[in-house]
Amino acid sequence: MAIDPQTLAELKESLLKEKEELENNLGRIAKPASDKEGDYEPTFEDIGRDIDDNITEVEQFTDNLPVEITLQKKLQDVLEALERMDKGTYGVCENCHQEIDIERLKANPSAKTCIKCR
Ligand SMILES: [Zn+2]
Q: What is the pTM of this model?
């Protein structure tokens, strides 16, 4: 691997920070759906039993869903990047198997593909 240990440590730091932020944000609108790390399902507050309350709950759920999907997708990317770091395959484009430009990784540590394959 061409990434020097110092840079790799910094990238890992960024990934862990991003993971924590994503989990915090997800925790507000979702709950873990299973034991699998990074698997969430959206929640909504139980406001009340009236029809109006139920409509509000459904609306909230509908509002949260796309946000939850986006956050969860991002969290999966971050978890996968951390996993690749453990395996020593981090920083390799999953499409063309070339090394991903270090500047691209610094800008987006969970990038899976190089600039050409993006
Ligand atoms: Zn590529």
A: 0.84
pLDDT digits (tens, 9 = 90+) for 67-101: 999 999 999 999 999 999 999 999 999 999 999 99
Instruction: Spell out which residues have Cβ within 5 A of ligand 1, the ion.
Output: 93, 95-96, 114, 117
For residue 99, the CA-to-ligand 1 centroid distance in Å is: 8
Q: Token pair of 75, please?
A: 């969290």
Q: What is the CA radius of gyration of the chain?
A: 18
- Cα of 89 to ligand 1 centre, how many Å? 14
The closest of 28, 16, 31 to 82, measured between CA atoms, is 16
Largest Cα–Cα separation, the chain: 61
Question: What 3-state DSSP class applies to 67?
Answer: helix
